[in-house]
Design brief:
Elements lengths: L1 H14 L14 E6 L5 E6 L10 E3 L3 E6 L8 E6 L11 E9 L4 E10 L19 E5 L3 H4 L2 E3 L7 E2 L14 E4 L4 E5 L9 E2 L2 E2 L28 E3 L14
Parallel strand pairs: 1-12
Antiparallel strand pairs: 1-4, 2-3, 2-5, 4-15, 5-6, 6-7, 7-11, 8-9, 8-12, 9-10, 13-14
Amino acid sequence: MAALSKLLNLLKSLTVSLLLVSPTTLATNNVIFNNYCHYPLYFWAVSTEVVHDEASNYVPAHDTLVHRMVNIGNPGICLKIRDVPMYEHGRQSILQLEYNIDWNDSKWHWDFSAIDCALGVPATEEGYCPFIGGGVHVYTTGDDATCKYAHCLGNHEADCVNTYTRHGSWHGEPSWSCPMGNDLIIDTCTSWTPARTYINGKPFTETDYQPPQPQPPDPAPGSSCDEPCDYFGPVPHSIEELPLCGSC
């Protein structure tokens, strides 16, 4: 358990962002969050240990964050996504983006789900599914025929494609694989910004909450300046605008 805790702490540090000035080319084996909403997005990287609210990762409105995939073996990493910085007391209002790296087959597996929220429930009620009322697209830099895609274009089951909307396992369930060297991308509020989750009878705001400010992670011993960096900045016009590390 101690080893897993260290890995999850490493995962947290790898998700912290850097503001980079000179865009070059796209790094690979990342999860890229493009938040087009008028309010922030929060997510927690969860495996098998208990995760607390303060472990959230913060993606401001109209910004991008690049989360580096980390291999910790089964069951992989589940990115729990909300529109408020509360995970411990709001687990029925979460979207999930899961990945698991398979080095033996040189690929990673992924899926997107809305099983930890209640489709069709308004923002005023417990269980509200954040973001999807305004459109959520999940796709890769690989071939759609191989790596697939998922989206929800509204707050009802019929609005979702290639998305888990119920618990269980079945033939043809929406679980996909993609060759190593590609990125997994999630765009939120692709059509418009939906209502935000209500807390204490009103839409949540950051007035009484100050999210942790992104800080650059310490360079790993022997790391190369050419390795991929995390990115924190405006949503790029194209994937190619995302950068690699330019200097240490």
